[in-house]
Amino acid sequence: MELSVAQAALTVALLSSLLLSAEDFNDASSLRRKSPVAGLCTQLIEPSGFPCSEHKTQTKDGFILGLQRVSSSSGNLRKQRGSPVLLIHGLFMAGDAWFLDTTNQSLGFILADRGFDVWVGNVRGTRWCHGHVSLSEKDREFWDWSWQEYALYDLREMIRYVYTVTNSRLFVIGHSQGTIMSLAAFTQPDIVEMVGAAALLCPITYLNHITARLALRLVKMHFDQVILALGIHELNFKSDWGTRIMDMMCDRRVDCDDMLTSITGKNCCFNSSRIDFYLEYEPHPSSAKNLNHLFQMIREGTFAMYDYGRWKNMKRYGQLKPPKFDLSQIPSSLPLWMGYGGNDALADITDLQHTLKELQSKPDLLYLENYGHLDFLLSTRSKEDVYDRILTFFNSLGTVRSY
Question: Partial AB-hydrolase lipase domain location, by residue (predicted)?
Fold first, then answer.
């Protein structure tokens, strides 16, 4: 660690105060999310008038993922659907993220009403998934993964499942971490051959130019490494200890009345009137290892597999440094669309330019100067500014099936 002794001691002391005893820690562990009384279809999508069905599929490493299939509010599940579209959410989110606004503002609803066969992805650890074939959420091994596994196991399996059910190559739409997963997965020939095109909101492969104040502060504190050293493997900010950690981070150096800005950058058009509703669903759990992997990207400026350290890398990968995801391996024949914003503190324009230089193809680009990271998902103007452009892109490919 590049952490001074004083910084390390202070950080450990603060975090240890959150875990006052083994009994307290066990109480916090008991707060791990339970399976919701109702699934995503019943709880959020069907009440808005859209037919929806729940699906399960198992990854090669034993996680049972939940997917939802949504069709038009004017149709039913037995009607012939249009082209399949898989929606991939961002960090600390899940499939509900695509349905949190009104039916004429949420991308999931808009796609369904335009005749697309909408599939909603949820990665391991989120509340709409169904655990593991042998591991409990109380097991450390249950949380032993990062976005690398999201890409190479979860997204691979979700794409395979939708491809098999629909007998059709699918469109992929990702936001934030969903774009990290997608671009990493698309470097794998057996995955990308099942994909017809992709639209990426706030695309990320490199993170070494981020300007998000809170994220940079946590990186400087080596927060990710400290929580792993303390034996914390699940990050659930809806638990008591998770809430206390966030309170600890909020001091005079970070304006926590504007926490979103400190994480994502200034959002021009975020629908703040619905924030209480958003918080009924977000945030979802993730793993400390996943946060560590993201912070490795910031520190090292790489788009690579998880760095275990030289000797463990040699054992796992056969080399001292983790292998990089080679963006030049994404076929030039894969149509790509990317939307990015001038106020995005996470998907920085300089980092995006780095990504574009490594791709073989030239994606269609949409630049919105006043948009921040969340605007692409939850803006009051996202339909007109963003989603209509995505629909135009997909329709231009000439491969869109309709009713």
Answer: 42-100
